[in-house]
Amino acid sequence: MNQPAVSPTLDTLFQRTLMRQPHAPALLDPLNKSRITGHQPRRMTYAEADTAIEALSAHFVESGLPANSVVAIQLPSTVEFVLTVLAAHRAGLVVAVLPLLWRQAELAAALNRTAARAIVTMSKVDSVSYADLAMHAAAEAFSIRHVYGFGTDLPEGMASLDAVLARPPGTTRAVIQDGRKAAMISFDVTAEGFRPVPRPHFSLIAGGLAMSLEADIKQGATVMSAFMPMSFAGLASSLAVWLLCGGTLALHHPFESEVLEQQVNEHACDVLIAPAQLALRLGDSGLAARMPTLRNVIGLWRAPEQVAASEAWIAPHAPLTDVYLFGEAGLFGARRGEDGVPVAVMPGPHGAPREQSGSSIAGEILLTPKGTLGLRGPMVPIAAYAPPHQVGETLTAQPPRDYVDTGYAARIDRACGAICITAPPSGIMAVGGYRFLSNDLQEWARRLGQGALLTALPDRFSGHRLAGRAQDNARAREALSELGLNPLMVEAFREITNN
């Protein structure tokens, strides 16, 4: 009897490289990890990583987490994040990624919306107690049964995963490795509000393929990821790209420029994946002389409407690939030519690589009847963005939709036929990569009192920045703290409003 073809999972990709080169370097921690988390940096081969993944996976099983249940993860960009994601998948669990900048209210909402059975965090990140944050959020989530943590001084009731890594693996369970199974849940903010976005393995792998093929990443490359992994783009650009190339993943917790350059040179990195604005800044200051081993740079644009007006790339030894991000809906990439300027992106199906005839279709770009950008393809979770049923029309069949409307305003250039992205979704603000509704900004401004000024202005580095008088900025930070915002988020606003 013929067995149906099964698409690979992330763990399948990991084990393929493990079988081929078990003693090759797999994971490299940030050099400044001791400052970030209190842990010493780790360097792990594929065999060592596999042992750690097996131990964590066995612990999840022994803890009683049922197959297909959700485990939420709020971790920095360190080795522990990668090990936990792969261990959860090996145990048959679904991973929900929680951004570090979230406040307790958002954490609790995400845990409740996904019915998460467990949460994994770090004791401290940049001196902020994430263990306490997780415990308080878990207390508001009915479904949470286990709270796990890496690090020291964990609160009572939180199980130590460092202790799990220090002992031999225990019980395992057989899990069918099928790329069509759910792999992750990320979270988006749209005009309709907070939205969980589930994805199968093949969708995440498709995102990684779209980037790695367009950028021409070689097999066995050493990839430096300086983009937070707590989103679809973050996971695709780090975990998926690494597993697809079968090389080494070096992690950088954003962002310290001197440490980043030291890591790139010490590990002889071939590929740098970073926020696009950061990449362009590095390219402006003698990239070839300072980081001679680089052969590819991938810049991720959280504000894709800014790509066309960006400056030219001036480091020909390491071509730049622009990756356009549309929240959690999807992405596409376009490698710049020899002149270093952004290339025109045409509507319709696009391959990976884009300019190669006969290449596999990575997705499709279209202009919707509303004059906004639509996406379809294997990485786009159409069902997660389906429009809500109209009130009173629950028995009426809804018109079929096979694309996601990103909400980004767009038009077709009459001269060349390229698609031009002109504005972000209305009602959505992005400050330092943190998306929120503009109504939230009005609420924060209301907390400042009568006569105060707080507004969001366009910013080419962070999407938007908060602006106001100096005394209002200080009061804004107090208001954010009163609203229960994560301390790191308050500090992010401090840096942005002081610029």
From TrEMBL:
- State the InterPro entries in the record: AMP-dep_synth/lig_dom (IPR000873), ANL_N_sf (IPR042099)
| Family the entry assigns | Belongs to the ATP-dependent AMP-binding enzyme family.
- An example of a Pfam family matching this protein is AMP-binding
Q: Does the keyword Ligase apply?
A: yes
Cited PANTHER family: ACYL-COA SYNTHETASE, MEDIUM-CHAIN ACYL-COA LIGASE ACSF2, MITOCHONDRIAL
**Top-level division of the source organism's lineage:** Bacteria
Which UniProt keywords are present, listed alphabetically? Ligase
Q: Where is the AMP-dependent synthetase/ligase domain?
A: 14-331
Q: What is the lineage of its organism?
A: Bacteria, Pseudomonadati, Pseudomonadota, Alphaproteobacteria, Hyphomicrobiales
In its UniProt entry, what is this protein called?
Answer: AMP-dependent synthetase
One GO MF term on file is:
medium-chain fatty acid-CoA ligase activity
The record lists the organism as Bradyrhizobium manausense
Q: Name one GO biological process term.
A: fatty acid metabolic process
